[in-house]
Amino acid sequence: MMVSAEGAVDFTKYIVVANTAVVGAVLVVAGRSLARGALTSDVPDARQNFGEFILDFFVNKARDMSHGLDRAKVMRWVAPVLGSLFLFIFVSNLFGMLPIPKLNQPPTSYYSVTLALALCSVGATLTLGLIFKGAKGAIKHLFWPNPMQWISEITDVLSLSLRLFGNIGGEYMTLTLVLLYAPLGIPLVLHALGLIPAFVQALVFTLLTASFMASAIHKEEKKPKKAGSRRWKLFGAKQERDEAAPEAGRLEEVPSAPAGSPA
Fold first, then answer.
1. Domain ranges, residue 173
2. What is the DSSP secondary structure assignment for residue 220, as one 8-state letter?
3. pLDDT tens digit string along 228-243?
């Protein structure tokens, strides 16, 4: 609990924690309701259609990065992570559109939340590298080809967290200031336009995470080894013998000179 200079109590961080819990509860309830009942491969109902529509994008992204790997395993590990990040961030961003002052602060407008999301993203990326490449491959990803490449994991955390916090936090502050001086009309327009950054920022965060994961689990194809110098020498010697064989045959066919003829 924070107390300002005027003696007023600031409940901001408690509101953010409560909103974060509400977002998690909403996603859990929505997921259970969509997965409830039997699923069919024939003609799905509206509930199944809606669930497949949401998940199809993340499954396709996971399939695209499974080149040279077990496709089913990649989709099973990657798609749930991407879907969870996108849905959590998108629903959190929508909190700014609630018409209730103080309670409409998006969790993603608080840096602690965006930092936690970025740490989850990078942590999941490192974990997937360990699963698909093993310990040796995961360590190589951090130090090869640049020994300082591990620093990029730190910059990825900062980049993801600051981008999301700056965009959603800035939008929330703008909306709060507009409500103070123009409580009618303009806020409604800003609420409608807020759908765009709410969706775009969730999508950008998810696509960047997918890019990091693809780089972490990608396996380089082994190039075929070039023939050694001894093999090339043997091949060259065989060619010389093949070329010399017709010449030797022609020499044997030349008739010898008769006896007593002048040399």
1. 2-37+44-217
2. P
3. 445 545 555 556 666 6
